[in-house]
Write a structure and sequence with these properties.
With about 230 residues, the protein is of the alpha/beta class. Helices cover about 45% and strands about 15% of the residues. Bound molecules: BIS(adenosine)-5'-pentaphosphate (AP5).
């Protein structure tokens, strides 16, 4: 088959970064721009907790304490979601993988489907600034759009820019004690994955301390290169 006839593989983009680095914010922007599907294991686990599933019951206390949910549970909820037809166009993994076990499981899962990681992006930030980002975060209860009291307020106070809802929520794990635990879990168990993706030759580092729009442009360039 000529090169031009080779079927393009769906993109698999990984966003790595500590709590508050902007993974969710940027994943939603990339989703809109590139038509990829955001897969956030945090969102999937929160949905399982809200639905009261067995996985959700086991994950709840761990999440409230800021620890990492077991690889077994995380992989089960992710694989379930990856069977949905919409992910065929390509995915942005937000908050996954987070351990070497999860990274190995992802590599095997993709290999089974003749796929591989297209790009892994490490969002580089100062830990100290992350507490302010997390403390000011709130989310539209209807469509899930993310906001910040100071850095990203809705255009009209109290009204979601995307869907017009006036209901917003704040996450129970967005408190100072839990954030410290989540930071510690990131540095101990997730940061080592940066070297894993560097070895695979797919790692990019993006300075994620600037304005949301500038980071979006830098990330967009990475995704463009990986998918173009
Ligand atoms: P998860 O939901 O993944 O949370 P997290 O990794 O702690 O990340 P956050 O959602 O807090 O931050 P973010 O990087 O998405 O930042 P955001 O864009 O919202 O996980 C929650 C829990 O679930 C974990 O603790 C764990 O227990 C469990 N879990 C999930 N996945 C797991 C896995 N794979 N394995 C095991 N356990 C797992 O931005 C934050 C705020 O800052 C927002 O208000 C935003 O508007 C603002 N902001 C964003 N960018 C900027 C900027 N450039 N400048 C100023 N403000 C900004």
């Amino acid at each position: 088959m000529a090169d031009s006839q080779v079927e393009a593989r769906p993109a698999v983009i990984i966003l790595l970064g500590p709590p508050g680095a902007g993974k969710g914010t940027q994943a939603r922007m990339l989703q809109e721009r590139f038509g990829l599907v955001q897969l956030s294991t945090g969102d999937l686990l929160r949905a399982a907790v809200a639905a009261g599933t067995e996985a959700g019951k086991q994950a709840k206390a761990v999440m409230e304490a800021g620890g990492l949910v077991s690889d077994e549970i995380v992989l089960a909820v992710l694989k379930d979601r990856m069977e949905d037809p919409d992910v065929r166009e390509g995915i942005i993994l937000d908050g996954f993988p987070r351990t070497t076990g999860q990274a190995a499981a992802l590599d095997s899962l993709l290999a089974e489907q003749g796929q591989k990681v297209s790009a892994a992006v490490s969002l580089e930030v100062d830990d100290a600034a992350m507490v302010e980002r997390i403390a000011g975060r709130f989310t539209c209860a209807n469509c899930g759009e993310g906001y910040h009291d100071r850095f990203k307020p809705p255009a009209v106070d109290g009204v979601c820019d995307k869907c017009g809802s006036t209901e917003f929520t704040r996450r129970p794990d967005d408190n100072a004690d839990t954030v410290r635990e989540r930071m510690a879990a990131y540095h101990a168990q997730t940061a080592p994955l940066i070297a894993h993706y560097e070895r695979l030759g797919v790692l990019s580092r993006v300075d994620a301390m600037g304005p949301i729009k500038d980071i979006g442009q830098a990330l967009g360039a990475v995704v463009q290169r990986a998918t173009g």
